[in-house]
Amino acid sequence: MKPSLLTFSFLLLFVFSLAFSTLVDEQVVVDTNGNPIFPGGRYYLMPPIFGAAGGGVKLGHDTESSTCPVAVFQDYSEVVNGLQVKFIIPGISPGIIFTGTTLNISFVEKPQCVESSIWAIVAGWPAWIGIGGDEDHQESEILTGKFNIQKHGLGYKFVFCPTYTIPPGSCYDIVKIDDVNGRRLILPMDDVSAPFEFVLFDAGDATRNSVV
Ligand SMILES: *[C@@H]1O[C@H](CO)[C@@H](O)[C@H](O)[C@H]1NC(C)=O
């Protein structure tokens, strides 16, 4: 049988995708279905293993006296998916997110009392993960810098590279810590704390529990 043009096109596509995957596949950030994540997608951040590691991310109060929930927590319960997050990368990119791609992490929903739901590092001891801008954190400074995703264990971790570090160019893992108010995400800027490890569940997909 003479190979048709269609067969040929499929073959070409196959060879092309094979070449592409050999080059970059390892670094494409994928969801639990193996699909590349993309800006505009909505995801739940969950520990890779269902159980004691807990559930998804949510908002809570930094201190007892704070009126607006601007601090990022992880739910203790593995059956809680938490809040949906999305990723923002500069407009003219192809839309594929690789490990190391500079991006912003944002909750899909925004509480009324805050200017934005983009994740930010709030200075403190330790620095902590919050949402909003300078106007939402009058008492402490927002650290400038860049977020990216890196592979870690069975999933991924978030890394933050502050603009000003000693030595220059240092990056730090976002980790979780048990605080009086719950399990919080912080940036301790040391090498000893275990990163907050997560996988990405497509929030448009209801099959989360069958994966883990
Ligand atoms: C992330 O958000 C900050 C604050 O809104 C902004 O200054 C920065 O340009 C954004 N970066 C990306 C990669 O979208």
Automatic annotation (TrEMBL):
InterPro entries: Kunitz_inhibitor_STI-like_sf, Prot_inh_Kunz-lg
Protein name: Kunitz type trypsin inhibitor / Alpha-fucosidase
SMART domains: STI (SM00452)
Keyword Glycosyltransferase found: no
GO molecular function: serine-type endopeptidase inhibitor activity
Record keywords, A-Z: Disulfide bond, Protease inhibitor, Secreted, Serine protease inhibitor, Signal
Cell cycle in keyword set: no
Annotated compartments: Secreted
SUPFAM superfamilies xrefs: STI-like (SSF50386)
One Pfam family named in its UniProt record: Kunitz_legume
Lineage: Eukaryota, Viridiplantae, Streptophyta, Embryophyta, Tracheophyta
Gene behind this protein: 25490854
UniProt-listed Gene3D superfamilies: 2.80.10.50
Top-level lineage group: Eukaryota
Signal peptide: 1-21
Gene Ontology, cellular component aspect: extracellular region
